[in-house]
């Protein structure tokens, strides 16, 4: 299997009005997300500083697979002055990948950017059996899946890792014994209090997204899955001061 750009060909095309509406909605969501990033509301600066330290300590040249890479703006910063030799970024948004190409170009390593569903992409790579990576990164994406889907993807990632490779997960994490509803209410409370530049319409978009699409697990759930799937070590590396987001390492 050669890694190259994939194009999703749908059986039917949306009408012009539907296409415009979907594009307008995506653009609006992207604008809100950029405001969140620019104001560091989700703590990207701190957590990617930790990621940079981890990657800078890698003792030999390494390759990375970045699933759900988006525009790779924070990842490119974390990769500066590391020994990365090859970066593969996968995202469903071709618009984001255009920006990712420019951001990763600053690193100076070989790069491959793939337009595809990143979860299906892991299935394809596992079935192909010819691609391995030293580092696999998923940042703020895995929580959209249900538990059995998360386990399947993590199992795929283990298969795709080279010996002594690491799966790095950056994501929202529930407290132990905290259910999903309690986590969401706590998180939205933080949004109301701290995201001061988000207007009421934008807050509604954030609330709707989190309420419908976020399914965080606990740290102990990930540790159990790590042991079940045969990772050699599971290490929690970072937790933000709001106790909502963590960086976890699963070592092959």
From TrEMBL:
Any one GO BP annotation for this protein: methylation
Signal peptide: none
Pfam families referenced in this protein's UniProt entry, alphabetically: Methyltransf_12
Keywords of the record: Methyltransferase, Transferase
Origin superkingdom: Bacteria
Gene Ontology MF terms in the entry: methyltransferase activity
UniProt cross-references to InterPro entries, sorted A to Z: Methyltransf_12, SAM-dependent_MTases_sf
Record domain Methyltransferase type: where: 65-167
Name this polypeptide is given: Class I SAM-dependent methyltransferase
Organism of provenance: Cylindrospermopsis raciborskii C07
Lineage: Bacteria, Bacillati, Cyanobacteriota, Cyanophyceae, Nostocales
